[in-house]
Write a structure and sequence with these properties.
- By secondary structure, the chain is mainly alpha-helical.
- It has one domain: EF-hand (Recoverin, domain 1), CATH 1.10.238.10.
- The protein is 66% helix and 3% strand.
- A two-stranded antiparallel sheet has the order 1-2.
- Helix 2 crosses helix 3.
- The chain starts with a helix and ends with a helix.
């Protein structure tokens, strides 16, 4: 499992204090290196979702790969998802929202308020 080894090494570099866990600020900085700009509150939510030790980091990585794949499958080289694409991508990864909740979520996470979600917007959603 070479990917696991690579992720553990990456985790070790991000865990600059060598505590065996990563803070929200450390994870936000690591995402920024990969051109993913999340609000600190979103990064904190990711940590709450996965409890956050080395093993949970691997689970978060699997989730992010799944979300990125759904985004890539539908973005059609545009670099964003339109609202209909977002709905389809969410269904693809196992999320189902009723119409009012879906549109409210899209509006909340559409940082530019243009009806287009970039990858980091979509992951945040």
């Amino acid at each position: 499992m070479e990917d696991g080894v690579i992720l553990r090494e990456w985790f070790g570099r991000v865990d600059s204090e060598k505590t065996g866990s990563i803070t929200a600020t450390q994870l936000k900085s690591a995402f920024a290196i990969g051109n993913l700009d999340f609000p600190l509150s979103v990064v904190q939510q990711m940590i709450r979702m996965y409890d956050f030790d080395r093993n949970e980091f691997l689970a978060l990585n699997k989730f992010l790969i799944k979300v990125q794949q759904a985004f890539s499958d539908l973005e059609r080289n545009r670099g964003f998802l339109a609202t209909d694409d977002v709905y389809e991508a969410l269904n693809k990864i196992g999320f189902s929202l009723d119409t009012p909740a879906f549109y409210a979520a899209c509006e909340s996470f559409d940082q530019k308020k243009n009806g287009r979600l970039q990858l980091d917007d979509f992951i945040s959603l």
